[in-house]
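for the recovery benchmark. tokens below, seq after
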């Protein structure tokens, strides 16, 4: 426990843990299921809708609005979220400890503390099992929690909530911007809409005459497929260079922020890695916010890195576009083929990609003028997406620092939570 000027209470006196463990088949015909693999720090992917016959045996924790779900497995990964009632028939895995505040007005404060680094250290201290560390959720009932006066709890909880909401709003903007860029990619390089317009002499196109003139005015047959004249299907290695991650010694990993964050495959879809290393390697290199990454084991996705400057671990590859190529072009171009490789991958339990698999990923290669025009058009979108991710990284740092100091009583909140959030 951190030093605090506030009184402390046991969590079990202000909340319940796993009070709503149920047999879903007695309540629902189908469920929206959340497993540990779909959760990161303050992030949860859309649930999987399952019929009761499809539901795994571990689908037992009923979620209600305001509940706090904390992964009991490998707590150093900091997988947790607050359920805000976004979907009905919500059930999560028994791999989560579900904390429900006795007083709903305390839910945001409890979430602020239970997701702090101080709380994570407590979870790690009660874990059992070397290779698969986990703790019993029932032990949280005896966990000491700093308990400021009601007004202070409300202020801290509201600040935590507002910062989360700002992060989530930024993520929504990122999703919308990425979708807008994909619409353009699909129009130009999948549907060939500008080429079709030229072939049909269709003057209703939304593109200006200068941009239209960059596209071919005819199609040709290549390997039984009709593609714009002069275009071809090439390899990823023609449009990008590849940097493959290197191994780091796990015994030097830490969660205290010593050194740089280390990106592992499990971190790809999160807002950053919680594993750090101070190890010095001449072969190591950094990944910056917005860089394009691919994991070589498990699920194969092209991911724009959302976290801060970090090192890249083995079995991950950084895609470095050539000067006139947009990272968004490459991301959209290889995503479909990666999923085909994933479906056909060989491996005993998970699929694996080789260096050659990635180098040979097929991408459309248009004439240089069209590729340049696409890159120029989406460059502001790419920059805005990267800036939103950087803003979220800053918000997370502010949240960690402020919440820790406020809960310990070292810092007093003099401005309103909204004013602090607006200035963050």
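predicted aa per position
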């Amino acid at each position: 426990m951190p030093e605090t000027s506030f009184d402390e209470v046991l969590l079990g006196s202000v909340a319940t843990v796993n009070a709503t463990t149920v047999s879903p088949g007695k309540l629902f015909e189908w469920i929206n299921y959340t497993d540990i693999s779909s959760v990161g720090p303050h992030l949860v992917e859309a649930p999987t809708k399952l019929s009761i016959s499809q539901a795994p045996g571990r689908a037992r924790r009923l979620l209600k609005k305001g509940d706090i779900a904390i992964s009991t497995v490998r707590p150093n990964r900091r997988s947790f979220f607050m359920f805000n009632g976004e979907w009905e028939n919500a059930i999560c895995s028994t791999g989560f400890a579900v904390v429900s505040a006795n007083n709903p007005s305390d839910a945001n404060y409890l979430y602020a503390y239970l997701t702090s680094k101080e709380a994570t250290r407590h979870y790690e201290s009660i874990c059992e099992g070397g290779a698969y560390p986990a703790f019993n959720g029932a032990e949280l009932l005896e966990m000491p929690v700093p308990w400021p006066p009601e007004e202070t709890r409300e202020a801290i909880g509201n600040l935590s909530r507002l910062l989360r909401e700002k992060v989530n709003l930024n993520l929504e903007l990122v999703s919308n911007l990425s979708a807008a860029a994909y619409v353009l990619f699909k129009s130009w390089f999948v549907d060939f809409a500008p080429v079709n317009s030229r072939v049909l002499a269709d003057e209703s196109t939304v593109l200006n005459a200068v941009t239209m003139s960059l596209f071919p005015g005819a199609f040709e047959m290549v390997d039984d497929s009709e593609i714009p004249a002069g275009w071809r299907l090439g390899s990823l290695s023609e449009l990008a260079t590849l940097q493959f991650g290197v191994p780091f010694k796990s015994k030097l990993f830490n969660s205290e922020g010593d050194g740089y964050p280390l990106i592992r495959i499990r971190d790809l879809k999160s807002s950053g890695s919680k594993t750090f290393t101070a190890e010095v390697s001449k072969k190591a290199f950094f990944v910056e916010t917005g860089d394009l990454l691919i994991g070589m084991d498990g699920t194969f996705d092209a991911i724009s890195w959302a976290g801060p400057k970090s090192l890249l671990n083995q079995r991950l590859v950084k895609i470095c576009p050539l000067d006139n190529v947009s990272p968004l072009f490459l991301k959209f171009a290889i995503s479909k083929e990666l999923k085909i490789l994933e479906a056909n991958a060989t491996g005993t339990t998970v699929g694996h990609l080789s260096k050659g698999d990635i180098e040979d990923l097929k991408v459309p290669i248009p004439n240089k003028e069209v590729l340049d025009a696409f890159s120029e058009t989406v460059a502001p979108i790419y920059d805005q997406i990267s800036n939103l991710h950087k803003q979220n990284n800053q918000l997370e740092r502010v949240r960690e620092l402020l919440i820790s100091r406020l809960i310990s009583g070292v810092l007093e909140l003099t401005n309103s939570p909204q004013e602090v959030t607006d200035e963050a």
